[in-house]
Amino acid sequence: MDTLHYLSLGFGVALQPENLMFALMGCFIGTLIGALPGLGPANGVAILIPLAFTLGLKPETALIMLTAVYAGAMYGGRISSILLNIPGDEPAMMTCLDGYPMARKGKAAEALAISAIASFMGSLIATVGLILLAPLLARFALTFGPAEYFALFVLAFATLGGITGKNPMKTLMAAAIGLIIATVGIDLSTGTQRYTFNVLELYEGVDFIIAIVGLFAVSELLFFIEEKAGKGREMIKINPLKLNWRDITSIFPTTVRGGVLGFIAGVLPGAGASLGSFITYTLEKKILGKKGYFGEGDPRGVAAPEAGNNGASSGALVPMLTLGVPGSGTTAVLLAMLVSLNITPGPLMFTQNADLVWGVIAALLVGNFMLLLLNIPLVGVFVKILSVPPMYLLPIVTMVAFVGIYSISHSTFDLYFMIAFGVAGYILRKLEIPLVPVILGLLLGPEMEKNLRHAMQISDGDWSILWSSGLSIGLWLVAIIGLLMPVIVGPILRKRMQAAKAKIGD
């Protein structure tokens, strides 16, 4: 009953005209960002964080808009997969396998409509799962002490690279870079300056919003300039939609299975949306066997991965909202937004900021309906925007990022700092070092240090407190498994995913 009460409270927040307007705006911009190959939801949310500050939005409105951008980007990734055979981001890769063959057979409109319905179903199932599971997990997390929280943060770092991660060492290296940056500033316990070099602006530490916008948005702009600026894409023609009720009911079991599996993949540490879409596609292929014609334009081959990756995106919000530990790159960026709004993520958020948390959850449900309504009739608009050369989009994105960062502190130092992070992000990406662990290290570093210190004070310096309870031992064991899985199981999964990628290239 409590859940229903809080959910109704959340709808009261989500259905306010201002929040509805920004949710709609977030859905539209998110779909557009998702449709642009290579940009992805994490970059999209990072680019739009400064916009939330520029507009002076209330915390719940800002989060609703950014969550809508996240959901929209997950929807939009399928457009370029189906029409161009280029996935908008990695989770949309599996959609190419049957989406593009459908488009080549003159069924592009049907493929886009089926993928929109499957995305809707996957996201809806996962949001219901979020509503049911998040309060339970939040209550359980209240039993965590400093030692358990420290083990949980270690677990978050250990599983960040994901089971399919290419190089766990690079992931750990990136996390270490983030943790090192997090130590910059005045130590609140001792008052000692750490790596400030007597620069006044560094006394309060590095602002992660500046780091995020620099690492994601500015580095992405540099890649755009290097690879894509000036090149437009061919205008794509879409056939008139001919989808009947039988077509929709035929994909229904697939979308339900995909949504449930995707949600589980999103909640589990180290799995993520890419693995979610891969598992749902391969499982559906096995279930249907000879009844399906996967790889040749089977609608269920479009529905399964879309339901899976959208389910995983909502599932990834569960650990972020309940434990304060992001389940994906995009939720790490959203977590940074929460912290910068002076909201402490974790189990207490469900009691201290109930209107905000439940407002975001209710907005996910409302946004899901908005996305379905936007994505079927307006898909032609997104396709036309997709064909606009990036040279016209680049100045707009740059302006939003720079104006937004300047509006936060009115400091030119922050702009220089953002550019420096952008260049660093560009170099790290060239070296194939992931950026998300850097952000996570920067975000979780202070909390990790605080809990470690607290545990040491309680135990009078006895390190064994870190593995003194059954819960902390369990978390350490999962962390060790998370470190070993990419080495043991990762090569097998990567081989299968590469085989799928090779099919896309054919």
Automatic annotation (TrEMBL):
Transmembrane regions listed in the UniProt entry: 20-39, 111-134, 140-160, 172-188, 208-225, 260-283, 323-344, 356-379, 391-408, 415-445, 465-493
Domain DUF112: 20-440
Cross-referenced InterPro entries: DUF112_TM (IPR002823)
Keyword Transmembrane helix: yes
Highest rank taxon of the organism: Bacteria
This protein's UniProt keywords: Membrane, Transmembrane, Transmembrane helix
Coiled coil: none
Name of the protein: Tripartite tricarboxylate transporter permease
Annotated organism of origin: Salinicola endophyticus
